[in-house]
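Quarterly update from the structural biology core.
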Amino acid sequence: MEGTITIKKPFDSHVHFRRGAMLKAVVPYTAEKFFGAIVMPNTEPPIDTTALAAEYEREILAACQGDALTQGFKPLMTFYLTKNLTPAEIEKGFSGENGVKVHAVKSYPFGATTNSQWGYRSILEATDVLKKMEEVGMPLLLHG
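Predicted structure, tokenized:
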């Protein structure tokens, strides 16, 4: 049709899959409509290591298996800015060293939203992690 644009598979820049049964229910719908998504890390437990990010990515991709409409879905993994997140994990995640590429860090202020009990009360407490993020070029995503 002249004068129209059809976006066949857009990109979701903010998706919450959670874990377990909720993830298995939500991922196929998202993967059918979007070619990829930035995956929020405020799960229980929070995604704050490359090992947890890799496990979460595998769970997401497994929920896409067996359906031609969801094949090729690209989850872009993120870390949750917790007190357990270290500069070394930032470096490993951003480089893809442990088999998973982590694209950004999400900051949830303490008590601000679902599963935000692991967030900082003051982001200034995360100076070492923020410096490493700046060094490698990893974006900081802020919950607003």
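The mean pLDDT is 94.
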